[in-house]
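Appendix B. Chain record.
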Amino acid sequence: MSDAIQITGLRKTYAAQGNAPAKEALKGVDLTIRSGSIFGLLGPNGAGKSTLINILAGLVNKTSGQVTIWGFDQDRNPRQSRAAIGVMPQELNMDPFFSPRASLEVQAGLYGVPKAERWTDELLALVGLTDQANAYARNLSGGMKRRLLLAKALVHRPQILVLDEPTAGVDINLREMLWANVRKLNEQGMTIILTTHYLEEAEQMCDEIAIINHGEVVIRQNTRDLLSRTDGKTLVLDTGGPATLPPLPEGVRQERRPDGRLAITYPPSRLRADQILDALRGAGIPILDVATEQPDLEDVFVELTRA
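Structure tokens predicted for this chain:
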């Protein structure tokens, strides 16, 4: 299947409540997500990401539009479309009196997975909870609870896995374990959809990224092309101390960093690094060391969501 998810004209308007007016959370979203990809869905708070994910999961009813998940139209085949997707939510929602093993068994029963087809022990091993399999969930650490949420999202062997802020508030060891598992699942053919405020994670993990703002998709591109949108590169120079810079071309910015180094950002489409270095040398400014910095996803994100 070439596309794991197809979204056309998706709208969601929340009705007015009390003094709060009606809110249009999604404004005609069109989006396709390739099968087998790791897809980043990014946006500022309130942009519409959670509404979109909840519609995919069947937790929120859309106002209009069409959603197809793994070939199943959400309106015509709601059970099949829900069975094709697993969601690891941001909130730690679990019964504190259930053990991880019991939680997975109950979750599998809710999805109608026959006992002979359940893989509870394998899931516990996958997320590193074998030793805690029979402990009360309330006694698990925050990181262990997040691992359990991942296992619960996988009990029915979905083709698509949604990770909603999966590493919020977790330590680096758990983060590395989570991404190792995600890569393993993706290598086995699972489509991954990731929302995160840690943009460096999205930059490293995702094949493609969509940025949503004010209920609309402002851009969707593969990660490499998205990073190339910002026409800016930075030279970081050690000049041995304060220096009076010569006049620089229009569009070139300078900044003295706390460590004393000079950062000069320029548009590589119009200038070359050697032109800037030659201008500095010509003004008698010593250059003891030089490094370059490429724009990252945060630069692109800020540029596209500034409004």
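Further analysis of this model is presented in Appendix C.
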